[in-house]
TrEMBL record, chain A:
Database matches in NCBIfam families: SUF_scaf_2
GO molecular function: iron ion binding; iron-sulfur cluster binding
Residue ranges occupied by any NIF system FeS cluster assembly NifU N-terminal domain in the UniProt entry: 10-129
Family, per entry: Belongs to the NifU family.
Name under which the protein is recorded: SUF system NifU family Fe-S cluster assembly protein
Organism of origin: Oceanobacillus arenosus
One annotated GO biological process: iron-sulfur cluster assembly
Domain of life: Bacteria
Matching InterPro entries: NIF_FeS_clus_asmbl_NifU_N
UniProtKB/TrEMBL annotation, chain B:
Top EC category: transferase
Catalysis: reaction(s): (sulfur carrier)-H + L-cysteine = (sulfur carrier)-SH + L-alanine
Protein species of origin: Oceanobacillus arenosus
Coiled coil: none
A single BP term in Gene Ontology: cysteine metabolic process
Keyword Transcription attached: no
Protein name (Swiss-Prot/TrEMBL): Cysteine desulfurase
Length: 144, 407
């Protein structure tokens, strides 16, 4: 593997989300807050979800971690906003499958930039970085 | 020390990773194993495998002789006065827990103190947190100097007449700091405390003389010193081990078993319940033979030279933070500005270079350093300056790579 293969992992769109995070901050008003970390590496995320009538009205995050974990959080919050809980959970399920090398089914759901993270599946040591924000989201909507 | 000859003895080093020759810079996590160790374990399973201390048959005798022979090698390696003071465990963590349970929990009461430092590995923090909670004792920390060392004045200040246990690492797995154990032991003893030394990073890299250090307990792992995983050692002074109750109960450790009461074997076996890690102990014995052949003083000099060289080369780069003191053991912990250590480690891996990234099981120390994670390159007797040059080239590529994708 040469450094060029790293381009599969570090796509421009990922680095853009890392450098210019979307939805970083705190939700105004009532929200469910989930703190989650990756104990093996120290990445941590605080995710806030505002759910009304079964729909994710707002999603914001804060945290510290590598480019993969933080960009994944940025993309995830973008993607689930406005989605039904059931849709958000389905997206999370598909995201886990994508980490195992499967394709996303984008026919019915708009995944936004998330497909860019597909390359992570070729870097098994980094899958946990990418799934952290999704795990937090799942926990959040289940608490809700 | 003929590094090329040494490298030949480590079959794992002769391979390509991601299209590049493997540069293994993660020996503080676990060291590689020389052929002598691999063969000792292999031979044991092929020829001698049997349970120890019970068979009348020939294989049982052979296995027992090899197992106890390994104990004698450990005794000599750390200069314990008796093999009765050498207990085989699963590793450093189990060794420390054995003392936290068998000594601290049994003897400490509310008002007593346990003293540790912020540079400890989690395995030398949590057992004491738990022992403090269980007994009502207070956990205290010797503060760190700005450069990541501790001052003996602070040691004198922190250890009081209420201190019953002092637990400290021989060498920090993050900062590389080598602590003045002998002097700290003197201070601890003057106040009536016992001292446990976490030797996970110490035993692989330097001559350990437990009588000269005058430590009460010394804990270390086989796998960081060219031995197999799953085997470690707890050294303890005989009079302390004699008064301690075993932590685990079962086969191998008993003298007589009655319906409602039992008595224990003598040292060291009273602390070795169940079938021990026989192959692991034999492998550790072979590792000790190997290390002795190379010479521990040679290894320390080599490791320090590599650490010094790495510090020098890394500090030539722009935008690199290096953590820990100038004088240090065989590792360099660092961060590149604006690149998370996981990302650094991934790019280096693409170049065949294995480094550790994360909190290194030292979260309180990460907090003290004001970082969430770091990268760490750690060295051992088979590493070369040329490999450090590869690391530096890899870091330059990392900076360039992330410089470009950010554009």
């Amino acid at each position: 593997m040469s450094l060029n293969n790293l381009d599969q992992l570090y796509r421009t769109v990922i680095m853009d989300h890392y450098k210019n995070p979307r939805n970083r901050g705190i939700v105004a008003g009532d929200a469910v807050t989930v703190d989650m970390n990756n104990p093996t590496c120290g990445d941590r995320i605080q995710l806030q979800l505002q759910v009304e009538d079964g729909i994710v009205k707002d999603a914001k995050y804060d945290g510290e971690g590598c480019s993969i974990s933080m960009s994944s959080a940025s993309m995830m919050t973008q993607a689930v906003k406005g989605k039904k809980i059931s849709e958000a959970l389905e997206m999370s399920h598909q995201f886990s499958d994508m980490m195992l090398g499967k394709e996303l089914n984008t026919d019915e759901l708009d995944f936004g930039d998330i497909e860019a993270l597909q390359g992570v599946s070729k870097f098994p040591a980094r899958i946990k970085c990418a799934t952290l924000a999704w795990k937090a989201m799942e926990k959040g909507v289940r608490e809700e | 020390m003929d590094i090329n000859a040494i490298r030949q003895m480590f079959p794992i080093l002769d391979q390509e990773v991601n299209g590049h020759p493997l540069v293994y810079l993660d020996s503080s996590a676990t060291s590689q194993k020389p052929i002598q160790v691999i063969e000792a374990v292999n031979d044991y399973y092929r020829q001698d495998n049997s349970n120890v201390h019970r068979g009348v048959h020939t294989l049982g005798t052979r296995a027992t002789d090899k197992y106890e022979g390994a104990r004698e090698k450990v005794r000599q390696f750390i200069n314990a006065s008796s093999a009765a003071e050498v207990i085989f465990t699963r590793g450093t963590t189990t060794s420390i827990n054995t003392v936290a349970y068998g000594y601290a929990r049994a003897n400490l009461v509310a008002g007593d103190e346990i003293v540790i430092t912020p540079m400890e590995h989690h395995s030398n923090i949590i057992p004491w947190q738990q022992a403090a909670k269980a007994t009502g004792a207070t956990l205290k920390y010797i503060p760190l100097q700005e450069d990541g060392t501790i001052s003996l004045d602070d040691v004198r200040e922190t250890i009081t007449k209420n201190t019953k246990v002092v637990a400290i690492t021989h060498m920090s797995n993050v900062l590389g700091t080598i602590n003045p154990i002998k002097q700290i032991a003197e201070i601890a003893h003057a106040k009536g405390a016992v001292i446990l030394v976490d030797g996970a990073q110490g035993a692989p890299h330097m001559t350990v003389d437990v009588q000269d250090l005058n430590c009460d307990f010394y804990a270390f792992s086989g796998h960081k010193m060219c031995g197999p995983t799953g085997i470690g050692v707890l050294y303890g002074k005989r009079e302390l081990l004699e008064e301690m109750e075993p932590v685990e109960f079962g086969g191998e450790m008993i003298d007589f078993v009655n319906l409602y009461d039992s008595t224990w074997k003598e040292l060291p076996w009273k602390f070795e319940a169940g079938t021990p890690v026989i192959a692991g102990a034999i492998g550790l014995g072979a590792a000790i033979d190997f290390l002795n052949e190379v010479g521990m003083d040679n290894i320390l000099a080599h490791d320090k030279k590599l650490a010094h060289y790495a510090m020098e080369r890394l500090s030539e780069l722009d935008g690199v933070s290096i953590y820990g003191p100038q004088d240090r053991g065989a590792l360099v912990t660092f961060n590149l500005d604006d690149v998370h250590p996981h990302d650094t480690a991934t790019v280096l891996d693409a170049e065949g270079i294995a480094v550790r990234a994360g909190h290194h099981c030292a979260q309180p120390l990460m907090k003290w350093l004001n970082v969430t994670a770091t990268a760490r390159a750690s060295f051992y007797l088979y590493n070369t300056e040329e490999e450090i040059d590869h690391l530096v080239a890899g870091l330059l590529k990392t900076k360039e790579y992330f410089g470009n994708v950010f554009k």
